Queue: 4 jobs
Job 1
Amino acid sequence: MKISINDLRFTYPAGVEALRGISLEINPGEQVAIVGQNGAGKTTLVRHFNGLLRPSSGSVWVGDWDTSKYSVAKLASRVGYVFQNPDEQLFSRDVLTEVAFGPKNLGYKKNKVDELVGCALALTELNDKTETNPYDLSPTWRKMVALASIIAMDTPIVIFDEPTTGQDAVNIARIANVIAEIKKEGKTVITITHDIDFCAENFERVIALSNGEVLLDGEAHDVLGREEILAKTYVDPPQLTRLGKALGLKETVINQEEFLNALK
Amino acid sequence: MRERLSFHIKRDSALHRLNPLTKLLLVLALILSAFLTPFYWTPHILAILVIPILSVIGRVGREYLSTAFRLILPAATFLFLMQAFFHPIGKEIIFAFYFLDMTLESLMFAFGNAMRIVVMVSAFTIFLLTTHPSELMSDLSRRGLPGQFAYVIISTLQILPQVQAKAQTIISAQRSRGLETEGGFFKRAGALIPLIGPLVFGSLVEVEERAIAIEARGFTSKHVKTSLHEIPDTPTDIFLRWFLTTLIAASIGLKLWLS
């Protein structure tokens, strides 16, 4: 499902102008990472996709829906949003009920809910923890429960807000795997991240925001190679990219594979 | 959404510059003289003349007026009506309405009491408008108020807005999972369940973290603590406090002598 953003502006009630005219198209099945300094407007932007915020001017369309005309609960059938802190959404007695909460709200039939929950639990490797209380799990596993609870809603668009913050290497690999799997299903994945290596390894398209405006938008390669422009929004290109540049490699490399190929 | 829960308005005025203890004593003096005075008109003079002058000196006249009209006057009016009609003194009925009757004595009594309430609440309002709570608390703990007591007051003022913000995030997260928060009573009551769990749990975790954080900075240490923020205590303050203490002693003394 396509997302179209037309000259979106947003000002918080306190008077902070967080978005200053953003126009973007995000095509079905794209893997988009949004980067930029704190306060650049990343979260403000994605909160418009599921109606948590309404444009001060301009518009956001999700498929054929104008987001300003639909409630958040309605938009939840199209856009899944994984919040940064799992503790701000987990409330059920056990993992299974927690993950089933979203799909039940969306009104799927009983056996469809079971099927979706089963898939989400398998994908997030939570199969053996269905009976556990989410708060008895470690923070990394709670994060996976939060992921599963959104993936089970089977929305064509999934948003992750800082999925790798505070996660160990094993869990980051698990999250990357989840993203790769939902990509295979043809879903759009949008991720806000400060983890630039994670961004380089898992996303095709990178959008850099700065002061509520789009600074760069394009293929991960092109965007992550523009060191000087990224510096404006306090983003460092991945280490390998900088190393490649220092070594005088002709092409911009953003991950291990490309780096090794360029060295051969 | 309000950012904080204190009334304090940051301005520069003679009242703002006074030491918090001096202002606290001023409030006490105003209240005691309004309640203990043997003269009928004292609370009225205080409420109509002294309090407004104080609010102007503190440059919070507009804010005081708005509080007075929205909060203090309605409350005082209610109290006035109740006492004017129901206080059983006096014989000569000057006004009757069905079973309600008012005498001159009950009218005077009610008016006086209402004015005392106005003085009391107004004095506190002006105090809160011109004094930052953390300034008050650091001054009082410097003078020997137990730190725990100051912590309870300050943390209450700080935690409530934080809990509010947290609740907002949790509601957003659950709405993003398709939770319908609009609609009939039962629907909305049901929508509370996914909110309360994370809110209560999260707040408890935060309380613990806060306790550890302040302990890590030597909260219960017995040593004398220094403060980064110096709160001025000028000769004017000391003079005013003597004056106010005398005033308080005088009103208590007068009350005892006359009774």
Job 2
Amino acid sequence: MMAELGLAALWLAAALAILQLVTGIWSMRAPELVAITGAVRPVTILQAVFAALSFTVLLYLFAVTDLSVELVAANSHTAKPLLYKITGAWGNHEGSMLLWVTVMALSGALIAGVEYRLPERTMQAVLACQGFVAAGFYAFLLFSSNPFARLPQPLAEGNGLNPLLQDVGLALHPPTLYIGYVGLSVAFSFAVGALVTRQVTPDFARAMRPWVLGAWVFLTLGITAGSYWAYYELGWGGWWFWDPVENASLMPWLAATALLHSVSVLAARDALRTWTLMLGVLAFSMSMLGTFLVRSGILTSVHAFAVDPQRGTFILILLAIYIGGALLLFALRAGAVAEGERFSVASRESALVVNNVLLTAILGIVLLGTLYPLLAEAFGERVSVGPPYFNLVGAIFALPMLAVLAIGPLLRWRRDSLQRISRPLIVLAAVGGAALVLTAVLFGVGFLPLAGLVLAAVLAVASVMPLSGRNLRRVPLAVWGMVAAHLGVAAALFGMASESAFTSERLVALAPGQATQVGPWQVRFAAVQPVAGPNWTALEARLEARIGTGAPVVLTPQARSFWAPAQQTTEAALATSWNGQLYAVMGGAADDGRWQIRLWWKPFVTFIWYGGGLIALGGALSLAGRVADDLKRRRVRARGARRRAQMVPA
Amino acid sequence: MNRLWLYLPLAVFFLLLGFAAYQLSQPKDEFVRSAMIGQPLPNFTLPAAMPGGQGVSASDFADGQPRLLNFWASWCLPCVAEAPHLDTLRDEGATIIGIAIRDRPEDIARFIGQHGNPYAAIASDDISAVQLALGSSGLPETFVIDGRGVVRYQHIGDVRAEHVPVLLAELRKAAR
Amino acid sequence: MTRLAPKHQRLILAAVALLALTGAGLGGAYALRSQASYFYLPAQMLADPPASDRSVRLGGMVEAGSIQKQADGVTIAFTVTDQHGARVPVRYAGIVPDLFVENSGVVAEGRLLPGGVFEADNLLAKHDENYVPRELQDMHKEQGGAALVTGGPQT
């Protein structure tokens, strides 16, 4: 019965999404019909209630392992721990698409519930657009990916879950990423709404900003967590593979980062109106494109997902309608949006424009590299595009962008001059010079890592400069947020450059009792023993690592065999210290009783993820600051209104 | 003219869309065909999957009678779907040898209890060794082996109603 | 710094943006020509060997009996072949994928050394259900051609 309940809720939610579209458009046409205009928000909220109900039912079916439901039987197993049973609900195509629309419906409900700053007409257009997009994805679920389909007869046992996906980090990673992906639909709908009503004002930007920030924070967290997952789970020692699935999450992030900054320019200075709308459309378009790339299987990836050309075609049509429609609307209407304020070449706005253009260029590069195999194949070529391309071309644009990022926050809005900030610039140049001498002379590293290390040092100092000379207690939260996020960029950059410059690697075959050296670590292979988990067995190596005569750290990498479905994975073992990570992977046995052991010493690699976390924290601080300001402003306005009401007797 | 650049993103998007659509329209063969067709079976001996059952070895196939060799598992979902069609094949006179991959005797017994037993013998291959040796990369797969123990035909995926006559014809061809 | 007339300012902004994006596009396209790694079958690699500084992929079958473990315990040597009988020797140091076996498909990433030995940095085994490289699917289609003759109707 439960599965049918879930399906019924899904149908109802789909119907309400269409109703939301209809009432939204109708109330724009006939603002005098109170019955209709008053219905838009409640319908939006009700749609979210049914979507959430449907998703909850799916979670329940997975929790109790209802093997009469095809999706559960295909992706779960009674022997699985409860946590992974539940997270299995979104570890598959149908479930993750249901999560997608649920997040979409909930974010729509959130706007309908709390967003009162937009002009009512724009708001109606926004909600209509949300309903329209959601309706397409409901149709996709109901007609080609029904998560509640029953089997003709229940199975005795489920088909397991990809053991690679049995991991806490990964279990929580997709929902985080999806909140980010789909949260950008709000920015998309805002942009579409503004294009429809042609009202692009600083107030509009201030209303849009928290939504962009919120989605961006989750996206940042999701990408950071995903990168760490790939790092320790795939056992290849790398933290970013430029895999299509990873690029699919990076592209919306790049667009959202650009949007975040351009929306700030629009809010503060009423400039960059059309550009902001373009980015609003672009960011969510990249989310949908990412979904298409991952779900259609037109690009192969190390991250396994169900591949189905029919579903690919369905999503392609949705893309054509939504992205194509929004871009067409943009082409027709953007010319009619009045021009914004002007600013001089040396100004905060200019720096942000440069940052935006470079971010978009990087986005273009990643998009091109991701789709290039597809384009080449149409001409009969077989290629794969990997790190050599992305690292090189990405860096060409990332390095100047990071340099501008160091200087931009020091500049004033509207007009400024480089002479005014010459003192801080000299300090930054000195820091950069010192870092250059230090790294080049002491270590002699390659050009890109060198540039990264120097820029990281400059950026770290530059990012706290906006605080200098200010009373720290009076610095607004939003500024703290900016400082934290920029410091996070510096930290992440430092981690990346350090990892690429200083990593040492050792691949050896060892017999128990033998030892080897990697970086400063002396690693002894003590023993190998069999171990068993709930649904796997493994061979586990016991490695004792120490620096000099220090206390030994024990690492236990495993080669695991799962039995449902039958699959083998390697479990890397990590030892984290303040200055880096020791990374160990166990391979197969050589013929003579030796075992393959692969070791990496990666100095300061953890800074990559600390940096990612700091960037997200910055976003969260900034969001908190903006929301607090907004609430305060609303209270003041309400008090003013009450006072006026008392003064003028009705 | 100066409004024309506003159409640029739209144009780029539809260009990409065209490529993607073209790519989707290309037929894609996801299946990995075995290189063993026309070759004799690799030598193997597998134990019976259930106590009291009969094991299977490569030499069993060289008695002049063509057989179907079916790789399956109780944990494999499509195997449930193909079970009734295997029954039909048996009723039509085909001899089916089953090899259960990475399975447990109690699960196999339960599966057979629920879905019937079309097999003349079921052996168990706990490490997929024979499956890999035959060039099969997924479950279920069904091979036609002729009376000299030569692999003649590979069917990838579950056997559906429309495949039953195809497999029977292959068996007849192998008997010649 | 002077303030520009609005018309000019907008034009300059658009020009800068267009320039950067075109630069990105052209730079990207150029880099793709030199950095994208092309896929070779053994016969193609013998007929038209790639330069030794180019990262490429080699796909084919692991020849039966060709896998040899070296004395260091971590390096293996094997031969990749195709149905035309072309053979390319491969050397690989690292942890071998679980399902890397003789007579089955493999994609090796790496470069062709001047001596004609392919040095692989990474191996992708066909049986790894998580990763059936697209390129390999085609190769098997070619091989499937032989199977079709005896195989009758296909699904």
Job 3
Amino acid sequence: MSGEWPLWEIFIRGQHGLNHRHVGSLHAPDAEMAVKHARDVYTRRNEGVSIWVVPSAAITASSPSEKGPLFEPSNSKVYRHPTFFDIPEDVGKM
Amino acid sequence: MYAQMVKSEATTEDPEKLAAFQARIDAGEKIEPKEWMPEGYRKTLIRQIGQHAHSEIVGQLPEGNWITRAPTLERKAILLAKVQDEAGHGLYLYCAAETLGVSRDELTEALLSGKMKYSSIFNYPTLNWADIGAVGWLVDGAAIMNQVPLQRTSFGPYSRAMIRICKEESFHQRQGYDIMMKMAQGSPEQKAMAQDALNRFWYPSLMMFGPSDKDSVHSAQSMAWKIKINTNDELRQKFVDQTVPQAEYLGLTIPDPELSWNEEKGGYDFSEPDWSEFFEVIKGNGPCNAERMEARQKAWDEGAWFREGLMAHAAKRAARKIAAE
């Protein structure tokens, strides 16, 4: 049998009230050990205040080859950006 | 370097796809694991990143040798932290290699069977405490020369691992130089130990960059793919130019009578290491090859019950949780 420990994706919240951010992956037998390993592998210099671990197999990713059609809807909607609208200077800051 | 003499793989794919791939690399785009890549690119990267990872792991052995015998508690804590970093670096790199479709166990088995190599430098012994200074100063110094440009490599996971490693690596070189300063300013016997360590580690450090590859087709392909950024000779020259003044500051002498400043090229002229020695070490005939592989094999074999035990425990707990629900 393949006794290899499963792979986990590691997310760490840095010091500054930011979102958890993906930092890498590691192997661990279960979630509890994954957190302990993540501490040793990814926060040896105080890089984090919180750790999330997710089994890599549980992640569903978008396909790189469908990048075009997937993101097209937002491509064609320039009016979502505030700079699309011209507001006269007299109106002031908006 | 940590990856020496990595052969690139020939690629026989659709020329149109290859051209589009090369255009992405030339434009400075990062290639991510699930995107299309030439088979040769994938295989060369597995070989290079794998060798780099193995070097980090085997590289713990010569230094680990001195943890229990460090001269002070502070030096011991520092060395322990450094060796732990090397383990971390190995793990970052293994994970980067695994995104290319090779498993951790396959990589470990390839190291143990001798199919994959690690850097020649770790087959030299660390005989005394001054050697720990020389390893940090010279070996980590040489590694940094190679790793800094590799932060810009084209494969995303490799580049990100290198960025993380480089952030941590300068501590390693500084702690080595700090040991060398202490020894060089110590008693005449201590200074002699520092000189002796430099004498023994100088040429093996120059060998870390590998033989000249300015005419190598493998190198040319790897450079086009941006998985190699500089030639071996460029990096070696840079290393010598950086290290000579550091040795002068210590009051130590580089063991090379031919060493001299060349005003015209703006760098030092220096003697080549003995390449026949390098090839012997690569073949497995260095002073510590057998010992290093024995240590890795022992760790792998004796850790088996532990790896399996934790998996069994995890499976049992998962089953219990399902039963309770």
Job 4
Amino acid sequence: MTMTLQNLAKDQPLLSVQGLSKSYGTRIGCADISFDLFPGEVMGIVGESGSGKSTLLSCMAGHMAPDAGRVIFDTASGPRDTVQMAEAERRRMARTDWAFVHQNPRDGLRMGVSAGGNVGERLMAVGARHYGDIRDTATDWLGRVEIAADRIDDRPRAFSGGMQQRLQIARNLVTGPRLVFMDEPTGGLDVSVQARLLDLLRGLVREMGLSAIIVTHDLAVVRLLADRLMVMKDGHVVEQGLTDQVLDDPQHAYTQLLVSSVLQV
Amino acid sequence: MIEIGNLCKSFTLHNQGSAVIPVMQNAQLSVAAGECVGLIGASGAGKSTLMRMVWGNYLASSGFIRVGDLDVAQAAPRQIIALRRETLGYVSQFLRVVPRVATLDVVAEPLLALGVCADAARARAAELLARLNIPQRLWALSPTTFSGGEQQRVNIARGFAHSYPALLLDEPTASLDAANREVVLALIEEAKARGAAILGIFHDEAARDRVCDRVADVRDFAVQAA
């Protein structure tokens, strides 16, 4: 429980992104992005579609090779540049220390495998072998994301969109990652389902002392989830800071436009 | 505990002809532990702006705002997050919560964030909600559907759940009936007695006279027309 406080005492960033750039031919994906993420911090990246936020996330998570720059992660054996890592090593890290929650649960789940299997598979990938233990842990995690134990043998196809998203979160967090990348995790869900998912994510971040990077275009989501905010436009970061400061007292012209364009409810 | 000096603030409205609106100049203020200072001045004079700069959601243009050991005007986001978790509480006029979360959990959350166990955090939340006369049948419901006065009391319960060494109170007695107003004033007095430094905005003059040791007029910090 005191994990977040201990983490805060450490001055070593968990992730340090330095000069990350990616172009598609002459078109800029993201340009010269640098920031440090500390243990227990949740950072939001906002911007309109085409602003480069998804490109940045893909480059950080190793799904896409950047043209330049470093993504230094504080691994068990010290800080390492994950861009330069061998593919096999980066994949192993992506399974253990990292997690990636896709906007569309179908991209992050195995649709032909049961809910319990989806969670258990991740445990087996990191070396769990005892069937009873794996099933118990899977049941426990389904409970934590509010999926009833009697649905453990059902396939995700039979689940609603919100349940599929919660299952994807369980599958990703069961191995106890330290850093979670999320791409529009509440996109495509009903507003009422979004709220439950936000509460769930907040609780998990707090209890597990997770760090997270959340890409979204929804300012209400980042206000409730993110400690820090980075605003992107045309591949560049135009403003960053404490979330409520960026939203309540935006300094850059584009952020002011973005914030003032949100409909009040 | 709270020490403000040479504080200036202006807003630049890029999408309205890049108008620069200076709103505060050389603000000076200090609040000692166990002291309550009330901000006064007409609506629009900058009371809330000053409070928000202390909270950190408004950027200071220059000057310093020390809360404990931290200069909020210069601090990194994670330092402000830690300050808000451990040292600085804020009762705003508006309740902003994740929809569909039970009132009891909304009030307990600041304690959970500090690592207090769930049972102890909920017990403290229940104690405050009962004291602020929120009927127990509402505790399991989300406060987003509550009346204005009820939401205000939930906000107050949340702000007083942890014994913050420094507190910002924005109209804590607005929209409350006499009995609940009395409870809130007692909570403020207890916080002062345990040594909290409090900066508040009170339009309720009787309340201000009772809990504030002195007042600061934000018109003293207003930008003089050139």
